Amino acid sequence: MPADPIALRRFTVREYYAMAEAGILGPDERVELLDGQVVAMSPIGARHADRVSKLAEYFVVRALGLASVRIQCPIRLDDLSEPEPDLALVRIEHDYGDAHPDAAKVHLVLEIAESSLKKDLRTKVPIYANAGIPEVWVIALEDDRVHVFRDPAHGTYRYETVLDRRSTIQPERLPLLGPIDVDVLLGR
């Protein structure tokens, strides 16, 4: 006889912050809220950290005047999800001192996957699609590929492709960034 499914209790963003304020979540604890679940984030390895730093520098220079670059900062997708992507390019005409950017203010999300590829593809990408994030790039360091997702509809992306080092890519919402070599995204 199969076991009854276990009902999970999902948390809201407000409750998530209350847990942090109450000390249930420690100040240095690496977690994010994904679809109402408090999810542990993978440790940041040296290669992952290097890619985040290098791509932050790259995009800050290229996006100057076009978008703000947020580095491992929360974005508020809805009342149940506040992920912390490695990089997010968001609209610059807003001040985010009072609230994290919501999905409508996000142009592009970049997730760098060293040990988190399955979680990024199976869990985070559908959450981004459901929220209407227009474009997500998952930079798979171990596979030496970049997974590109565009055109969200009904909790999925209608356009998906995987690019190798010989390819170039151009962000749809930020065409003035120009084409970007995938080799730059993956690093050495």
- Report the average pLDDT across residues: 93
Order of helices and strands: HEEHEEEHEEEEEH
Structural class: alpha+beta
Number of strands: 10
Determine Rg (CA atoms, Å).
17 Å
Beta-strand fraction estimate: 25-35%
Taking the alpha carbons of the first and last residues, their distance comes to 52 Å
- Annotated CATH homologous superfamily: tt1808, chain A
- CATH architecture term: Alpha-Beta Complex
CATH-assigned fold name: tt1808, chain A
The portion of residues assigned to helices is 10-25%
Report the sheet with the most strands, covering strand number, pairing sense and barrel closure: 6 strands, mixed
Cα shape: globular
Which segments are poorly predicted (pLDDT under 50) over 5 or more consecutive residues?
Answer: none
What's the total helix number?
4
- The strand line-up of the biggest sheet is 3-4-5-6-7-8
Question: In CATH's first tier, which class applies?
Answer: Alpha Beta
Number of domains: 1
What's a concise summary of this model?
The chain is α+β, with helices and mostly antiparallel strands and 188 residues long. Helix content is 24%, strand content 27%. The protein contains four helices and ten strands, in the order αββαβββαβββββα.
General description of the model:
With 188 residues, this protein is of the alpha+beta class. The chain is globular, with a radius of gyration of 17 Å. The chain is built from four helices and ten strands, in the order αββαβββαβββββα. The model has no long low-confidence stretch (mean pLDDT 93). The strands form three sheets. It has a six-stranded mixed β-sheet with strand order 3-4-5-6-7-8. A two-stranded antiparallel ribbon has the order 1-2. It has a single domain (42-186), classed as tt1808, chain A (Alpha-Beta Complex).
